[in-house]
Amino acid sequence: MILPIVGYGDPVLRKVGEALSPEYPGLKETIANMYETMYNACGVGLAAPQVGMSIRLFVIDTTPFGEDEELPIEEQKQLSGFKRTFINAIILKEEGELWGFNEGCLSIPEVREDVYRHEKITVEYYDEDFNVKTEVFDGLIARVIQHEYDHIEGVLFTDLISSLKKKLIKKKLQNIMDGKTRPDYRMKFCNKKGR
Description:
Blueprint (H helix, E strand, L loop, with lengths): L4 E2 L20 H14 L4 E3 L9 E5 L11 H7 L3 E23 L2 E19 L5 E7 H14 L10 H6 L1 H8 L9 E2 L7
Parallel strand pairs: 1-7
Antiparallel strand pairs: 2-3, 3-4, 4-5, 5-6
């Protein structure tokens, strides 16, 4: 089932997500709905707060990045078919240089900004079957994980840009809150009249 994506300004996007237990009701269905919602919106990652649930869950599929012919062939192969579910993720270590990339977010449509993140991370998480894993990721995969991880910590990519850039996008953010933005997917806006 395709869920509405919560827009910028909704308080759920600022909450730190609660940890999940294997007994969480309807977990498999929630995960399936999140993938379907993410694909419908042409995203590469989606966190539970973005669909109104303040829990520590996010899904990622970087396959669309694998079609970028400007990337080295090896990186294209790594990105193609990388699909993971992260439950109760904890970033244990961030390493390497900070590098910039133009990020966007399904909860903040029509806004893109350069964000600087570490190139390599070590993450501990549970998969959809509640098997614990500790893995090291780098490059674009690490970036997508960091972006989605921020969501379960109540952080948005717009928090990581300069105050000048924040001022420049203020009107766009207000338009999202007021429901004046029209993405190609279903959204729930916090200030829209008659919602």
